[in-house]
From TrEMBL:
NCBIfam families per record: bioB
Family: Belongs to the radical SAM superfamily. Biotin synthase family.
Name of the protein: biotin synthase
Record domain Radical SAM core: where: 48-279
C-alpha cells in the first residue's frame, strides 16, 4: 500500500510514519497532493471553518538565546529595545479588541529563554490567562520559552488552552540556526506541556536555509510524537536586518535550493495535513507578504487557522478587516472557541473510529 493510501484510509491519526513514507507523500505531484490533502482535510475538519488567533508580545526583546533569525535576541543589533512584562489590564484590553474582531484564541509571547526564577512573571501571566478565559470566553496560548513539568501544571491550572514551542527546523539543520538551546530541550518542553494536559502548538519556520530533506525530517519528528501537536504553525521567515540569518540568506544565489519557494511551503502544508490529519495547520509569521491566491491554495491544501490582528510579535500581520473580507469572499467562517476533535492527537487503537467534533462542554 502506498503512503498516500495509508494516510487516506487510516481511521485515526498515525504516529508510525517513516521518513521514506513522508518523502513519498511530499514528492507526490502537487496537483494530486493538494487533492488528497483536501480530501483528508474534509474527513477530519469542516473545510469552511478557520480558527482566527491574535498574538500579543507581552515581553519584548532582551532574549538570551542566539536564534539567528530573531529580532528579539540580545545577541544582535536589530534596533529593538528590551521591554518589561506588560500589565494585566493592557493585555485584557488587547484581548477584548481581538474578540470584538472575531478572534477566538488569544496568544501571548514573552522573549525569555525559560521560566526559571520568574515567579512574579508567572503569577501575572496566570492572571492574564484566567481573566481572558473567564471574562471573555477565549482560548489562550502562551509561548514563554522552556517550561518544566511543574510550570506546565501551573499554567494548566490557570486555564491555559495551549502552549506554543516550535521545533523551528529539522534536527539536522538545527545547529546551524540555534546553539543556546538544544533540539532535545525543545522536545522536552513539548513533553512537559502535553503531560500537564495542555495542547501543544509546535511547528516550523520555513526559509532558514533548509533543504527538502529538512522539511521531511521536521515533519517526521512532529508526526511520530506520541500525540501530534494540536496545532502546527507554518511560519515563513521574514529576514530581519541585523540578524545573521538575513546576512546568510542574502549570500545565497537566487536559484539556490536553500531558498524557499512557495511550492515547497505548499507541499509542507499538504503533507502535514495528510500525516497529522487532526491537527490545526496555522498560517503564521510571513502571511502578511503572501498574495491572496497563495493563501487560498494553502487553505485548499489543509490550512485551517491564521494569526490576524494588529501585528505579530515584532512583524506585520494581516488585519481583521482584510481577513474578514477575504473570508466573506470565499465563504469561510471563523471557528468557534474550544473547537476540537475528541481523538485528534491520540495514537489510534485497534478500535479507533472516525473523529467526532466535541465542544468545550462535552
Amino acid at each position: 500500500m502506498s503512503a498516500l493510501e495509508i494516510a487516506r484510509t487510516a481511521n485515526a491519526p498515525l504516529n508510525s510514519w517513516t521518513k521514506e513514507q513522508i518523502k513519498e507523500i511530499y514528492d507526490t505531484p502537487l496537483m494530486e497532493l493538494m487533492h488528497q490533502a483536501q480530501l483528508q482535510h474534509r474527513k477530519y475538519h469542516n473545510p469552511l471553518e478557520v480558527q482566527m488567533c491574535s498574538l500579543l508580545s507581552i515581553k519584548t526583546g532582551g532574549c538570551a538565546e542566539d536564534c539567528k533569525y530573531c529580532a528579539q535576541s540580545s545577541k544582535y543589533d536589530t534596533g529593538l529595545k528590551a521591554e518589561k512584562l506588560v500589565q494585566v489590564d493592557e493585555v485584557m484590553e488587547k484581548a477584548r479588541i481581538a474578540k470584538e474582531n472575531g478572534s477566538t484564541r488569544f496568544c501571548m509571547g514573552a522573549a525569555w529563554r525559560d521560566m526559571k526564577g520568574r515567579k512574579s512573571g508567572m503569577k501575572r501571566i496566570t492572571e492574564m490567562i484566567s481573566r481572558i478565559n473567564k471574562e471573555l470566553g477565549m482560548e489562550t496560548c502562551v509561548t514563554l520559552g522552556m517550561v518544566d513539568a511543574d510550570q506546565a501544571k501551573e499554567l494548566k491550572a490557570a486555564g491555559l488552552t495551549a502552549y506554543n514551542h516550535n521545533i523551528d527546523t529539522s534536527r539536522e539543520h538545527y545547529p546551524n540556526v540555534i546553539t543556546t538551546r538544544t533540539f532535545d530541550e525543545r522536545l522536552t518542553t513539548i513533553k512537559n506541556v502535553q503531560a500537564a494536559g495542555l495542547q501543544a502548538c509546535s511547528g516550523a519556520i520555513l526559509g532558514l536555509g533548509e533543504t527538502t530533506e529538512d522539511h521531511i525530517s521536521f515533519l517526521h519528528t512532529l508526526s511520530t510524537m506520541e500525540r501530534h501537536p494540536e496545532s502546527f504553525p507554518v511560519n515563513r521567515l521574514i529576514p530581519i536586518p541585523g540578524t545573521p540569518m538575513a546576512d546568510d540568506l542574502a549570500k545565497l544565489p537566487e536559484n539556490s535550493p536553500r531558498k524557499l519557494q512557495f511550492d515547497k511551503m505548499l507541499k509542507v502544508i499538504c503533507t502535514a495535513r495528510l500525516i497529522m490529519p487532526g491537527s490545526k495547520i496555522r498560517l503564521s509569521a510571513g502571511r502578511y507578504g503572501m498574495k491572496e491566491h497563495e493563501q487560498f491554495l494553502c487553505f485548499m491544501g489543509g490550512a485551517n487557522a491564521i494569526f490576524t490582528g494588529e501585528k505579530m510579535l515584532t512583524t506585520m500581520c494581516n488585519g481583521w478587516d482584510e481577513d474578514k473580507a477575504m473570508f466573506a469572499k470565499w465563504g469561510i467562517k471563523p471557528m468557534a472557541s474550544f473547537r476540537r476533535l475528541d481523538n485528534t492527537m491520540k495514537v489510534p487503537s485497534s478500535e479507533a473510529t472516525k473523529p467526532v467534533y466535541v465542544s468545550a462542554s462535552s
